[in-house]
Known about the structure:
Shape: rod-shaped
Oligomer: single chain
Bound molecules: adenosine-5'-diphosphate
Strand content: 15-25%
Amino acid sequence: MRRLSFRTKLTLFYAALLAVVMGGAGSLLYRSAAARFDAVINARLTGLCSGLWGYIDFTGGQPVITYDPEQHEILHFVRSGARYYQLYDGEDGRVLAQSDDSALMHLELSPAQVIKSVGSPRFEDVEIRGVPLRFYSALFHYNRHHYLLRVGTVLEEEVSELAELRNILLVLIPVVTIFAALAGWWLAGRVLRPLQALQSAAQAIGITHLDRRLPLRGTNDELDALAQTFNEVFARLETSVGRIKQFTANISHELRTPLVVLQGETEIALMKPGLTEECRQILSSQLEEFDKLRKLTNQLLTLAQADAGQIRLQKEVVDISALACALRDHAEVLAASRGIDLCAKCPAPVAVAGDSSWLERMVLNLLDNAIKFTAPGGRVEIATGSSGAHAYIQVSDTGIGISAESLPHIFDRFYRSDSSRSEVEGAGLGLSLVKWIVEAHGGSIHATSTLGAGSQFTVLLPLSSKASFAAYAAGR
Ligand code: ADP
């Protein structure tokens, strides 16, 4: 599973936290508004109920509401209060009186419900034909007889206000969360940008560029301290690697002469008459080993000299097609001895400005690897051509291939993939040298490979100018 980036995690955390806080605050706001509405309605109903009781007249036997219609305030109070009311006999639950609206909407309670309500005053919410109503029932006494007065009020306004508040919150919380998440994403990007800059600067510092340093922003913050620490590590690495390179150069140089002497002496010994077959085999095997050692020390010395900038290229116009064809002929004996078909596709001359001996060394290394890592019966091909401003040399094989894990490391010094380590000779320096030669010529190299099917190495070099190529062709 793909891991989330730090920026995404920060944004998600920030958005989730905000959504939870806003959700909590919204729900608190909604609950407190609902509680406030409740308290206001209940106070209104209890006020209405006790006020209305004051206007009930029992003198005629049948209770009726009496008031002075001239007094507008009282008229308004009774009209709004008396819109939904019922007066019950508290003993048997009979309806004694009720407002016209109450009768019309059949809002009265059954005698059993009345007897149940007599115990304690209570509020109840009902919905009649979609209209929300709240009733309050309270017990009153008159002439040692008790009565239950039930007064109701419509809740429509409060319910719709609460619904409006809820809708606003339901839209506002996600919208604010989305905006906050976008702002958080932007902010996290801004905060992490210096870190990304440090990362790419650190990535650019390879073993061959240890003299580079991470940029300091001069802000004296944690990031600057981190960059400073890394720079100190790079400085120590540069010194150590420098010493190792110097040591490698010295040791390869010192080994060269004794190796040449040993090789020469072994060759002379081999030519001596009267050697037993066993002796001859031992000396031949020694010669092979000396040859390998000599190649290795040569490679090490060359790389050390290249690192120290001591190699000067003798640039001239080189036809890489002619060079490739010549090297194919040179390597054919080796390829044939291993049962490999080696062919060249170099249809037209392609000129580059380069040092022919180093270019030869580069192509030979690639051909050597291709032959080394291809089983008998396989095929190796070298092709040259041009594309745009570049000349290309391509060496392809139908060999063992390189795994996707190994592919990014094959140009590293001393790197050898697990499969080749056990089966094929080598020190893991050939491709490092190839890469150095290509880069010293201003070119680039890349490899593609399929494990078990083969590999392809493509070298791109800048094409030589037409004028110098024409002069070169005329001189041939
Ligand atoms: P070596 O001396 O081991 O050949 P190189 O630097 O030339 O060192 O190559 C490094 C590694 O890259 C090899 O050990 C091998 O694993 C892999 N490699 C190079 N060329 C090929 C190829 N043509 N086919 C398969 N693997 C290759």
